[in-house]
Write a structure and sequence with these properties.
Largest sheet: 2 strands, antiparallel
Order of helices and strands: HHHHHHHHEEH
Distance between the termini: 58 Å
Shape: flat
Radius of gyration: 21 Å
Number of helices: 9
Structural class: mainly alpha
Length: about 200
């Protein structure tokens, strides 16, 4: 028996030796509420329904993340003298920990901010995008990108990564006007330099 989130990296002969290969979907919010309610009892955390639901809704459909956030909200509540994990505590704690109402964290938003503000919505190469947010390309590709693509905030194209309309809306930004080719107009800073140091396309 084995478990992996990157089955494509397994050699085909090894995959073929498993008698059955299954795929687990992301959990619904109501399922995460059930899991968190049970774990709150096991951890002796006093939590009400609204607080649990708020944590579950920001957990990316992943029990591991939900349980981690539950512990961090519990820590916040204890530090600030709260008697239980309620909606107010959950919202304040997750805001402090940079987890927004869509489950995006600091890295996720940094990637979207770079795509929209610095590269006009893209497309932009992975390595360039990683440099813009101060992370390694592998970190952007394996940590941030899968969730952003699944939730419809990022689009993978043959020319690189691009921001979707949902990304602009989530950041409260206005997307660039489409050009004749159907793509958003790139910002001047994202255009390559010519031999004289000017921007190509000017």
């Amino acid at each position: 028996m084995g478990a992996t989130t990157r089955s494509g990296l397994l050699p085909a002969p090894l995959r073929d030796r498993f008698g059955f290969t299954g795929h687990l979907d992301f959990y619904k919010t109501e399922d995460l509420v059930t899991i968190l309610t049970k774990n709150a009892r096991l951890l002796e955390i006093d939590a009400d329904r609204e607080g649990i639901e708020h944590i579950a809704s920001r957990s990316r459909g992943t029990p591991r993340i939900a349980n981690r956030l539950l512990r961090r909200v519990r820590d916040w509540a204890q530090v600030y003298g709260k008697q239980s994990v309620d909606l107010e505590s959950a919202n304040a704690a997750l805001t402090l920990f940079d987890v927004d109402d869509q489950g995006l964290d600091r890295l996720d938003r940094a990637v979207l901010e770079a795509l929209c503000r610095r590269f006009g919505g893209g497309p932009v190469g992975l390595s360039t995008l990683a440099v813009a947010v101060g992370e390694e390309p592998d970190t952007v590709e394996t940590v941030a990108e899968p969730f952003l693509v699944r939730e419809g905030f990022m689009i993978r194209t043959p020319r690189g990564r691009a921001a979707s309309p949902a990304a602009w809306t989530h950041l409260g930004l206005t997307p660039p006007r489409p050009t004749k080719g159907g793509q958003g107009s790139a910002s001047q800073d994202s255009l390559p330099l010519d031999n004289q140091g000017g921007r190509l396309g000017n």
